[in-house]
Amino acid sequence: MLTNVLALFLFLSSAGPTVDAFKKEMSPLQSAVDALINSSGAQVTQHSQAAYIEGYGIVVQLEMVFEPPQGIFGTPKSPAQLKSMIALRRKDLNEKLTAFVKQRIVTTDSIEATDSLTIVVHVLNLNPADVPDLPIQMQFTAKKESPQQVTPREIK
Fold first, then answer.
1. Which end of the chain has fewer beta carbons closer than 10 Å to its terminal beta carbon, N or C?
2. Residues 18-31: tens digit of each pLDDT
3. Residue from 102, 154, 115, 138 nearest 22 by CA
4. Is 53 helix (H, G, I), strand (E, B) or coil?
């Protein structure tokens, strides 16, 4: 009986430090993801929310727009200009998020050795007539055991 209680205590105490570490890392992680999105020229429409999932790792999700609707907040751009600008922002965002995940998977203490870090970006397309081929979601995932292998995925 005593060994069962001791084993249960050790199990429960082992989960605590990871959750405590995540609570400290959550806000800076969310702010860093939002800042990275905004630095690409895109705009965050729903701020990042991070969650720790035991046995998986950390998932950060947010919503963003590559370009506001045309003609509402400034001079409208031609469809060719809009496509070109969004293509550049999309490429920049892919590169920045890939590098960010590679760096953060190694430095985040609350991610265990077999856990993952995933960033899910919901893309709000406010110009579907001009840019109909945008994905609705972009995902970037890496495992701590192989941090240089980031798996980007787009859902259309």
1. N
2. 788 899 999 999 99
3. 115
4. strand
Both tokens of 134, joined, read 């945008």
Enclosing domain of residue 114: 2-155
Tell me the residue ranges of DSSP E strands in the chain.
Answer: 43-53, 57-65, 116-123, 137-143, 146-155
Instruction: Give pTM, 2 decimals.
Output: 0.85
Helix (H, G, I), strand (E, B) or coil at 24: helix
Are the C-beta atoms of 42 and 63 separated by less than 8 Å?
Answer: no
pLDDT in tens, 69-121: 877 767 788 889 999 999 999 999 999 999 999 999 999 999 999 999 999 99
Predicted pLDDT at 74: 72
Number of domains in the chain: 1
Query: Is the separation of the CB atoms in 58 and 22 below 8 Å?
Result: yes
Per this entry, what is the length of the chain? 156
Q: Which residue has the tokens 């550049």?
A: 88
Radius of gyration of the chain (CA): 19
Strand duo 146-155 + 116-123: pairing: unpaired
Largest CA-CA distance found in the chain, in angstroms, rounded: 74
How much of the chain, in percent, has pLDDT values that exceed 90?
78
Three-state DSSP class for 155?
Answer: strand
